[in-house]
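Q: How would the structure tokens look for this protein?
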Amino acid sequence: MKPHQITADAPRRKRRRRVGRGEGSGSGKTAGRGTLGQGARSGGNAYPGFEGGQTRLLMRFPSRRGFTNHRFRRDFQPVNVGALSAFPEGAVVGPEELKAQGLIEPGLYKVLAGGDLDRALTVRAPKFSAAAKAKIESAGGSVEELSE
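A: Here is the predicted structure in token form.
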């Protein structure tokens, strides 16, 4: 079909199929419901995921059971101590500086102990691992924990 072939002639809404109105209509007698069984009864259709009495797939996975707190989980972006070497000696490294450097996206982050630090920095972050704190302080820097 091409754009010049589109017309507004077709009805805006398709007409409802009237079932059970005689054999000549093409959907008479059983009205498209087949012969007997749960689907032929009024109000008788199984819920999505029903597998005819067999234990449904969702229940067969042990990983799907139990409590999860994912709605309230707080994800921290990792920032390794080694990445802080990009900042000059004596700099104050906070969320704005890390965003400007492209090390984090807006949101929560945690400073981890990966890599080595060879300069004194003042690092401001919502969370630090114990090893990261020790590395920063051993390099002569200081640590400031921000409220989340």
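DSSP finds three helices and six strands in the chain.

The helical segments are 57-60, 95-101, 130-138.

Upvote if useful.
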